[in-house]
Amino acid sequence: MGDLSGNYEIRRFPAVSKGNEGYAEAETWAKAVGFGFHDSTRTPEHRERSLATYEVDGRIFTGAYQTGPVAPSSLPAEVPVATFGTFRKTLNIGFGRMLETQMVTAVTVRTSHRRRGLLRRMMTEDLQAAKDDGVAMAALTASEGSIYGRFGYGVASLERTVKVDTTGRFTLRHTATGAVEVADPKTLLDVAPAVFERVHRHTPGSLGRQEWYRHLASGSLGRDGKEDPAIKVALHYGPDATIDGYVSYKFLGWDTTPYTVEVVDLVAATDHAYLELWQYLAAIDLVERVTWNEAPVDDPLAWALADPRCIDASDSRDMLWLRILDVPRALAARHYPADGRLVLNVDDPLGLTPGIFALTVEGGQAAVERLPEGTAADLELGVSALSSIFLGGVCPVTLKAAGAISELRPGAALRARQMFAVERATHCLTHF
Ligand SMILES: CC(=O)SCCNC(=O)CCNC(=O)[C@H](O)C(C)(C)COP(=O)(O)OP(=O)(O)OC[C@H]1O[C@@H](n2cnc3c(N)ncnc32)[C@H](O)[C@@H]1OP(=O)(O)O
C-alpha cells in the first residue's frame, strides 16, 4: 500500500444540527455517506432530521479529504472521499454488567478512491484513539462478512428473519399475566427509551440505542425520512400496570398475500411481555402472517408454541461484530458463572492488545494477569475469536472445531464455554 499521507487529510468533527456552526460540513459528510450506500432518496429535510438525532447521539464524523489537485469538474475537495462515523454506548456483557463501547458506522469509500488503504487507515487510527481513551470494546454491524475480520472483529451475536403463521395454528402454551392495549404511536417517543433500557439491562449483547429508534418506532421518522402513518403500536402492561413492553408494526396492504403484518420494533422487558405481545400480534384480525427481521435465533416463541412449525425462519445471520481493544480490561469487566483458570495467547492483527493473559476466576471473582512471552497457554486465538466468544453467544468448542481457536490444553475450550456463559441468550436489538 502506498503512503497516502500526501494525498488525503483525515478530519474529525462532531455531528451538529441545523443552525449550528459546522452544519454545512456535517451535511456534506452525510451526503457522501448516502452516496456510498446507493441512497437516492435523502432530501435536505431528511438529512436535517437525521443530523439532529446524530447530534443527540454525540456522533463523531471522520472524513478523508483530497489535499492535492482535484480532477476538473469532479466533486470538489470539501466532499469527503471516505467517511467513518462513531459514537459511544454501553454493551451488556452479561449478568447486567455494562462496558462502554465504540460503535462504528457509516463506513464508505468513494469508488474512485477504493482499495488504497483509506478504510484501513481510518479504522486503525480510530481504534487506537478509542483504546487510548480508555474504551475496551468496539462494535459494528457489517455490510459484507469479508471486510472486518482482518481488523480483529468477530461475530458475537446472530439474528434471523421469521415469518410466523398466525392463522388458527397459532396457539401459545402460556397464561397471560398482564394486558396489552393499543396506543397512539407517538406515545413511544416518551415510552420507548425507558422500556428499552430495561431490556438493555437484562439482555447480554444488547447495545444502547441511538436517538433515532424512538422516532422509528413511533412512526415519526421512517427509513425514508418521512412520517410513517402506517405504524401501529401496542403496549404491554405488567401485573403492576407499568409498561414493560411494546410492539410497533404495520400492515403491508391488501396486495401482499398472505395478509401480513411486519414488526418494526418489538421490545419486551419480561418473558411474559414478550409472549403476550406475540399473542396480541397473532390475534390481529384479517392477518395471516407476522414477519420480523430482527428475531432472536434462540427464541422462546418457538418453545411456547403448541406447533413450533408456525415459525418459518431464514438461516441465522451475523448481527453484532465485536472487537476487543484492551484484553485485560475487557476480561476483567465480565462476570464469570464458572470458576477456573485459562491462559489465553491472543494474537492481534493491528497490534492493539496482543499477549498472553491468565484469566483466573475464584468464587466468581475474576483476575486478569499479563504473563511473559513464551508462557505455555491453554488456548491460542486471534482477538477476533476472543471477541466472538466474549459475550457467550458463540461457542469456543465450535470455534476450535473451525480452527479459529487452538486448544493447547485438552478440555480448555469446554472450560472457556462454561466460563464465558451468560445468563440468557445473547441478542442485540440495536442496528447502527
Ligand atoms: C460498519 C459499516 O458501516 S459496514 C458498511 C461498509 N461500507 C460499504 O459496504 C459501502 C461500500 N464499500 C465501500 O465503501 C468500500 O469498498 C469499503 C469501505 C468496504 C472498503 O474501503 P477501502 O478503502 O477500499 O478499503 P481498504 O483499501 O482500506 O482495504 C482494507 C482491506 O480490506 C479489504 N477489503 C476492503 N473492502 C473489502 C470487501 N468489500 N470485501 C473484502 N475485502 C475488502 C482490502 O482488500 C484490504 O485488505 P488488506 O489490507 O488486508 O490487503
From TrEMBL:
Alphabetic keyword roster: Acyltransferase, Transferase
UniProt GO BP: aminoglycoside antibiotic catabolic process
Signal peptide (from-to): none
Residue span(s) of domain Eis-like acetyltransferase: 205-324
Top-level lineage group: Bacteria
Binding site for acetyl-CoA: V107, T108, V109, R115, R116, G117, L118, L119, R120, S143, E144
Keyword check for Acyltransferase: yes
InterPro entries reported for this sequence: Acetyltransf_17 (IPR041380), Acetyltransferase_Eis (IPR051554), Acyl_CoA_acyltransferase (IPR016181), Eis_dom (IPR025559), NAcTrfase_Eis (IPR022902), SCP2_sterol-bd_dom_sf (IPR036527)
Location of the Enhanced intracellular survival protein domain: 327-428
Gene Ontology molecular function, alphabetical: aminoglycoside N-acetyltransferase activity
Active site, per annotation: Y148 (proton donor), F432 (proton acceptor)
A family per Pfam: Acetyltransf_17
HAMAP family the record matches: Eis
Similarity section: Belongs to the acetyltransferase Eis family.
Matches recorded under NCBIfam families: PRK01346.1-4, PRK01346.1-6
The protein's assembly and partners: Homohexamer; trimer of dimers.
Protein name: Acetyltransferase
Taxonomic source organism: Pseudarthrobacter niigatensis
